[in-house]
Design a protein that fits this description.
Layout: H1 2-14, E1 32-33, H2 46-58, H3 65-68, H4 74-86, E2 93-95, H5 99-113, E3 119-123, H6 128-141, E4 146-150, E5 164-170, H7 182-191, E6 196-199, H8 211-214, E7 218-221, E8 236-239, H9 283-292, H10 301-322, E9 329-330, E10 342-346, H11 351-360, E11 363-364, E12 366-368, E13 372-376, H12 384-400
Parallel strand pairs: 1-11, 3-4, 3-5, 5-6, 6-7
Antiparallel strand pairs: 2-8, 7-8, 9-10, 10-13, 12-13
Helix pairs in contact: 1-12, 2-9, 4-9, 5-6, 10-12
Length: 415
Amino acid sequence: MADKFEQRARALDAADALAPLRDRFVLPEGIIYLDGNSLGPMPKGVAERLAEAAETEWAQDLITSWNKADWIGLPRRIAAKIAPLIGTEADCVAVTDSTSINLFKVLAAALALNPGRTRIVTERDNFPTDLYMADGLSRLIGKDHELVLVDRPDDVAPALDDRTAVLMLTHVNYRTGHMFDMAGLTKKAHEAGAPAIWDLAHSAGAVEVDLDGAGADFAVGCGYKYLNGGPGAPAFLHVARRHHGAAFQPLTGWFSHAAPFAFKPGYEPAGGIARFMTGTPPVLSLTALDRALDAWDGVSMADVRAKSLALTGLFVEAVETLCAGHGLTLASPREEALRGSQVSFYLDGHGYEVMQTLIARGVIGDFRAPDIVRFGFTPLYTRFADVVAAARILSDILETRAWDRDEFRQRAAVT
């Protein structure tokens, strides 16, 4: 059976039109990297570009580089590269801050559009920072906003009513990889009189996203997962053009001012998306993200999605065949239309140990408490041969109980 999977993988790799893109990345020899949904690898050219920014633009040209090297234009240039990946226009995207901070800003703006309503509808299994920021914002503004936490995807639409202030969802769930119907649920939110916020942390660069086509009001996303911008890379946010005049965010730093270098004491919001900026752009991290996004030159998101489904489908089949009888239960949707670019399995009792053993064997995924082993598939560099090899190594670890060692039980700070 393993030979059958390997033969399929070889055939799929030979026919893969995206295969040459792997050469755009720095990938350590002997590593099967299935964690690009947590941190993308470094694209080639990033290190050299960072060195140029540090050694010439900063060290030699000093402050003149804000103009000479157009540091000031970095957020705008990066927005133009991200916009096509998420189905919107560049002047509807701001590249700034972290995903959490950006969520705070757009949630504040969305709630202000619906001042008489009190409910924020979201998923109980949403990424925790989204829930924490919503709770913190509600406490700060002193209003009795209620987080309505639905337990199943099918429960989202019925939870929307005339009390709903905003729908706030992560497009692809970080634990299971379940992908919501963005267009359908945005429509339902609008029918209930509420705007919709979408967190694209596990979508941008992984699946086809059409924010404008779906009618999304606001969105946020990060630069360090599938966009490969480096650890802690700056995030982005989206505000639909129809909200540019009325939407207002509370973190009114000087870069959101209409004339930041006029240095006026009174605040006057910039027009358009610029009012969602905050403070001084972090030039070095933006430089890395800017260069990293060049890896997307000429890439079709439709091709990315097609390969993603083929990769994840093969992995599910291989793991369920080769690892049968060892307690793995598929946590991700089996139906392709509902699955993002990751595959997660429940593994009760020793999931952490198994993942640490996999990493020691050169297969890098991650663990999400309490019982999920998670694997991300990035079509720009993941090969079908990697998929089958990872499944075989996982099978051997489970069959031999190689995970049952003290060294794999020691919990690291990051899992």
